[in-house]
Amino acid sequence: MGRLDGKIAIVTGGGGxxxxxxxxxxxxxxxKVAIADxxxxxxxxxxxxxxxxxLAVQFDAADPASIEAxxxxxxxxxxxxxxxxxxxxxxxxxxxxxxxxxxxxxIEIWDEIxxxxxRGYLLGCKYAIPHMIAGGGGSIVNxxxxxxxxxxxxxxxxxxxxxxxxxxxxxxxxxxxxxNIRCNSVAPGVVLTDALDATAPGLKExxxxxxxxxxxxxxDDIAALVAxxxxxxxxYITGENISISGGGxxxxxHYADLLDLMGxxxx
Length: 267
Prior knowledge:
- The protein is of the alpha/beta class.
- It contains nine helices and seven strands, in the order E-H-E-H-E-H-E-H-E-H-E-H-H-H-E-H.
- A seven-stranded parallel beta sheet has the order 3-2-1-4-5-6-7, sandwiched between helices.
């Protein structure tokens, strides 16, 4: 028996590296999953290998009506809803360089990122929670980021949206906890996906100096954490943000420089 036997889940951004890994893990744990993505081909590519346990749904995280329809389609197909993994994000590589600083960012880029990354998560919760309450409860897991917990030199809209997701998760947990709705966020650091080099070339080489584990995490590592938070094994965990980043935020900011200095003294 799997930890998610009989559960019905939605994974948004389900055609991407992390989303598809979460969907596979959910099914392996016994759930049935609606894999929702802006690109229908990507959703189908992730859903088809999972057979009748998966449903491909095209949706637009910037469109409230599309999000409502996604939830409705899932419930109509599977009969209920127990788990929502909000994971969609604005991933257009042509727009990432425009998400820069407070002075330089075009306001339309700010609005688009906030709409997709933050408002889209609120709307997913808005439309999913009534179905979860009707079924006796549920678990929401939101994908945040370490970028939502500290400042950086660029990507001000992305970081702000992810910080908002962390706070949103705490509000959902507080407002619906007594109705047996749990809500947590996970905050990945750099994760090895196909899109990483396309969206942030050279980033992993820089970040590798600051993580504490020998290797970077993979989408399957994120999926393992999300599956735990979706399952009843985490029934006493809600309102939390869990960093999954190889210890990247657990040390002093000069960690990598000290390693270099120690190496020089030992050589």
